[in-house]
Amino acid sequence: MSAKEVVLTYEGLKKLEEELEFLRGTKRKEVAERIKQALSFGDISENSEYDEAKNEQAQVEGRIVQLESMLKHARIIDEDEVNTDVVSLGSKVKIFDIEFDEEVEYLIVGSTEANPLKSKISNESPVGAALIGHSKGETVEVQVPDGVLKFKILEISK
């Protein structure tokens, strides 16, 4: 099975690289020190500090493997190549939500970077997927669990 391509902005790439560096260095050393300290307490068969430290070590190592795989399969969105004629990955889209009578702006990103609270929506989300490929002035309908949302695309930028 081939790994899924991970689409990232330069900002997203930098964050993943920083997290990986932190986990490989600082965090690994902290966990190793906790294990060493827990071992000094003696019998590990009933040593909850040791069990917790070993579990944390497994989580850290698992996240390192996950990050390495994501970075290996990363495709970086080059902001200079973002087309402002149609919505695509890397586009900033200002839309008018017809039902709520309000303007909203989203940045279309890969699922790894999606953060709706920061107005970053995934190209795989219902709204993101529906907007992809549409142009300024078009009205887009999005099927969501509550029904259908309608958005008018007001502006597309980088």
TrEMBL record:
<dbReference type="InterPro" id="IPR028624">
    <property type="entry name" value="Tscrpt_elong_fac_GreA/B"/>
</dbReference>
<dbReference type="InterPro" id="IPR036953">
    <property type="entry name" value="GreA/GreB_C_sf"/>
</dbReference>
<keyword id="KW-0251">Elongation factor</keyword>
<dbReference type="GO" id="GO:0003677">
    <property type="term" value="F:DNA binding"/>
</dbReference>
<keyword id="KW-0804">Transcription</keyword>
<dbReference type="InterPro" id="IPR018151">
    <property type="entry name" value="TF_GreA/GreB_CS"/>
</dbReference>
<keyword id="KW-0238">DNA-binding</keyword>
<dbReference type="InterPro" id="IPR036805">
    <property type="entry name" value="Tscrpt_elong_fac_GreA/B_N_sf"/>
</dbReference>
<comment type="function">
    <text>Necessary for efficient RNA polymerase transcription elongation past template-encoded arresting sites. The arresting sites in DNA have the property of trapping a certain fraction of elongating RNA polymerases that pass through, resulting in locked ternary complexes. Cleavage of the nascent transcript by cleavage factors such as GreA or GreB allows the resumption of elongation from the new 3'terminus. GreA releases sequences of 2 to 3 nucleotides.</text>
</comment>
<dbReference type="InterPro" id="IPR001437">
    <property type="entry name" value="Tscrpt_elong_fac_GreA/B_C"/>
</dbReference>
<feature type="coiled-coil region">
    <location>
        <begin position="13"/>
        <end position="70"/>
    </location>
</feature>
<dbReference type="Pfam" id="PF03449">
    <property type="entry name" value="GreA_GreB_N"/>
</dbReference>
<protein>
    <recommendedName>
        <fullName>Transcription elongation factor GreA</fullName>
    </recommendedName>
</protein>
<feature type="domain" description="Transcription elongation factor GreA/GreB C-terminal">
    <location>
        <begin position="84"/>
        <end position="157"/>
    </location>
</feature>
<keyword id="KW-0805">Transcription regulation</keyword>
<dbReference type="GO" id="GO:0032784">
    <property type="term" value="P:regulation of DNA-templated transcription elongation"/>
</dbReference>
<feature type="domain" description="Transcription elongation factor GreA/GreB N-terminal">
    <location>
        <begin position="7"/>
        <end position="76"/>
    </location>
</feature>
<dbReference type="InterPro" id="IPR006359">
    <property type="entry name" value="Tscrpt_elong_fac_GreA"/>
</dbReference>
<dbReference type="GO" id="GO:0006354">
    <property type="term" value="P:DNA-templated transcription elongation"/>
</dbReference>
<dbReference type="GO" id="GO:0070063">
    <property type="term" value="F:RNA polymerase binding"/>
</dbReference>
<keyword id="KW-0175">Coiled coil</keyword>
<dbReference type="Pfam" id="PF01272">
    <property type="entry name" value="GreA_GreB"/>
</dbReference>
<comment type="similarity">
    <text>Belongs to the GreA/GreB family.</text>
</comment>
<dbReference type="InterPro" id="IPR022691">
    <property type="entry name" value="Tscrpt_elong_fac_GreA/B_N"/>
</dbReference>
<dbReference type="InterPro" id="IPR023459">
    <property type="entry name" value="Tscrpt_elong_fac_GreA/B_fam"/>
</dbReference>
<keyword id="KW-0648">Protein biosynthesis</keyword>
<dbReference type="GO" id="GO:0003746">
    <property type="term" value="F:translation elongation factor activity"/>
</dbReference>
